[in-house]
Write a structure and sequence with these properties.
The chain is mainly alpha-helical. Among the domains are: 15-45, no CATH class; 56-116. Helices cover 46% and strands 0% of the residues. The protein has helices spanning 22-27, 31-43, 57-61, 64-84, 86-115.
């Protein structure tokens, strides 16, 4: 009893049939196969103005918010296309956009780490702590008793420098 047909990963269709292999063509082709192959090869040649992009393509591809924030660099790209070609203009646009995003990320991180540090006035923010150095009995100077802060300086978070 046969079950339903199994779906395979590769669902490609061989348009050239057996004529895609050189050996098959050398074995011999009928006149009908020669005509079909000539038509097939002729159909593979694209028109110089292809691909044709419809005028609504950009509007359908990008939502209004994305079109809004892409507009400035789109104008720059359109000005550069006659000078350097569409591929180079698109690449320059891509590099410029990613560079601007990287700079914004770096400035945001610097701002956050500068103005949102943890101190005694708030419970949030980033705080820096250092762990003791790992030491093993075979290390030189093994029983290190190095103290980084005095007893009254522990966990003050800037309270000792407060004007209050």
């Amino acid at each position: 009893m046969k079950g339903p047909p199994q779906k395979t990963e590769d669902m490609t269709i061989m348009l050239e049939r057996r004529l895609s292999r050189d050996r098959e063509r050398l074995i011999g082709m009928t006149d009908e196969e020669r005509a079909w192959r000539a038509k097939f090869l002729k159909d593979q040649i694209l028109d110089p103005c292809e691909p044709v992009i419809s005028p609504d393509y950009y509007k359908k591809r990008y939502n209004p918010i994305r079109r809004f924030y892409r507009a400035p660099l789109d104008k720059v790209e359109n000005m550069l296309v006659p000078l350097m070609g569409s591929t180079w203009a698109d690449g320059l646009r891509h590099i410029t956009a990613k560079s601007i995003m990287g700079i914004i990320f770096i400035y945001s991180a610097c701002y956050y780490f500068k103005y949102n540090g943890h101190d005694w006035t708030k419970s949030g923010g980033w705080r820096t702590s250092f762990s003791r150095i790992k030491q093993f009995p075979s290390d030189p100077g093994f029983p290190s008793t190095e103290v980084r802060c005095k007893g009254n300086e522990f966990a003050q978070y800037g309270f000792d420098k407060s004007p209050i």
